[in-house]
Amino acid sequence: MKKILAVLFALMVFSPACSGQDVVPAARKGKAHPPVSHKAAASAEIKGKIETITLADPSRGVRPELSVMDEAGKRYTFLVRPTTIYGSDWKVITLDKLLRDQQVRVRYTASKEGFFTALSIKSATDGKDKPL
Question: Got the DSSP string for 55-103?
Fold first, then answer.
């Protein structure tokens, strides 16, 4: 008897999903669903000089950031992920290897909230600029 009840319960639970019936609750029927976008956020690129570098300090909740002044004089601050930085020879380097006033090219995305995340940072010089 318990086996029959278990089978009937399983059939009731899975039958709408398996048979392709509409499983949208009645309260949501008739309402338009927001479109789902599978596109990646568009990226942009700037060239400029490094103004400040903030190294990560997880114990204090500090994330790694890089401030760059572009050629037009506009300042950008980027959140830096660990695998996004390249030297002038395209070898991966760490954030602490970058220097103040060093020329860089940053490819980035902007979030809806206005935060910039660096996708890649490429040094345009050989690191002969002023250290921070």
Answer: --BGGGTBPPEEEEEETTS-EEEEEE-TT-EE-TTS-B--GGG--TT-E
